[in-house]
Amino acid sequence: MTQLTLGILGGGQLGMMLAQSALKLGHRCVFLEDTPHAPAGLYGQVYSTQQLDEFVAKSDIFSLEFENTPVATASYLATQKQGIYPPPNALAVAQDRLAEKALFNELDIPTVPYRAVSSLDDLQSACDELGLPLVLKTSRGGYDGKGQYIIKTKDDIATAWQELSDALTEGNLPAPLIAEGFIHFSREVSLIGVRGRTGEVGFYPLVENVHNNGILAKTTAPAPNADTLNQTAQASMKKLLEKLDYVGVLTLELFVSENGLIANEIAPRVHNSGHWTIEGTNTSQFENHVRAVLGLPLGDTGIVKPSVMLNVIGKYPDANELLTHTGVHFHHYHKSERDGRKIGHITVMSDDNDRVVGEVEKLLGCVKPF
C-alpha cells in the first residue's frame, strides 16, 4: 500500500483527530494553519499560509477541517495533485447562509422563512413580513452563537442593525445579512453523512444536541424517539450529498418543530456532534472522512453502544476524578484554558449513562443539567 500524505486546511482539534485516524490507516497528514501551537501539530508538520507552496509540495491530496477556509484557496488546491475533497462548491454554499437556504429550498428541504437584508429599511420590512421575534444573522462568518442578534420587539431593530451592519462591508466578500423567522422547536438534532469517491453513502444515527450560550455542550446518540425523524433526515442528506457531488463527511443541523424537521445549516467537515463516534461506532466520522477522501471503501457506521458526548469548555476537569468512572473516555485537545473555548470532550458509554453523565457534569462545573 502506498503511503499518502493528506494536506488539511486547518490545524485545530478536528485536524488532530483526522490525523489520528489517518495514521491508523497507514497514511499521514500535514496542515495549513497560522495559529501558533495548533493541536494538529502533534501529529504532523504545520505550514503557515505564507508557506502554501511548501504545503502543496508535501501533500498528495487535500481536505479541510474548517468551513471558513477561503474558497479561493480550496479552488486552487482543486487543481493541484489529486485535488481537494469536499469540493470547493460545497464550501462556498456552506459559507453563505443565503446560498445555503436557497439550496435547501431547491431540494425541497424545509427551512424557516427568511429574507435578505441590506439596509435598515430591508430589516424593518423583514420584521413586518416575518413577524417578531426573528433572528438577524450575518450571512457569512459567525459560529458558536456569534454574528447574530435576536430581535424581540420593534425597539430592538435599530440596535440589531447597529450591531451587525458592519458585516455588510467587512472583508473582501461583502454580503447581505439574513433575517430568519423565529420558530418554536422542541429540540436540536444533527445528522452526519459520508460519501465516498465512487458515490457510496453511509449515515450515522441522528443525534440530539444541547447548546449552552450558543456552544454545543452535550450530544446524545442516538437521539431518543427519532426513528421517523432519522429517515427524513437521511433522505435530505442524500439529496445534499448527490447535488453537491460531495466526497467526505457532511453534517446537517436541524430543528425538530411541530411541523417536522427544519434544516438550519450544513457543515462541510467532520463535526463536534460526531465526536462520540470515535468510541461509539464501528468506524468514526474521522476515519470515514479519511477513507472517503483517499478513495478507500467506507467503514461500517453502526453503533457499538449508546453514547453521550460532553464538551469540555473553558477549564479542564480533574482527570483523576473523571477517569474513576466506568465507561468514560476523555479527549484532551492540548489547548490552553480560556472562557468559552472548546478544549476537550468526554464520551460516556456506561451501562448507567444518566448517572455517570450527571457525575461528569458536576466535574465540569455544571450548576444544573444543560
Automatic annotation (TrEMBL):
Its EC number is 6.3.4.18. Residues 101-294 form the ATP-grasp domain. GO terms for molecular function: 5-(carboxyamino)imidazole ribonucleotide synthase activity; ATP binding; metal ion binding; phosphoribosylaminoimidazole carboxylase activity. SUPFAM superfamilies: Glutathione synthetase ATP-binding domain-like (SSF56059), PreATP-grasp domain (SSF52440), Rudiment single hybrid motif (SSF51246). InterPro entries: ATP-grasp, ATP-grasp_carboxylate-amine, ATP_grasp_subdomain_1, PreATP-grasp_dom_sf, PurK, PurK_C, PurT/PurK_preATP-grasp, Rudment_hybrid_motif. Catalyzes the ATP-dependent conversion of 5-aminoimidazole ribonucleotide (AIR) and HCO(3)- to N5-carboxyaminoimidazole ribonucleotide (N5-CAIR). This is N5-carboxyaminoimidazole ribonucleotide synthase. It comes from Moraxella lacunata. The gene is purK.
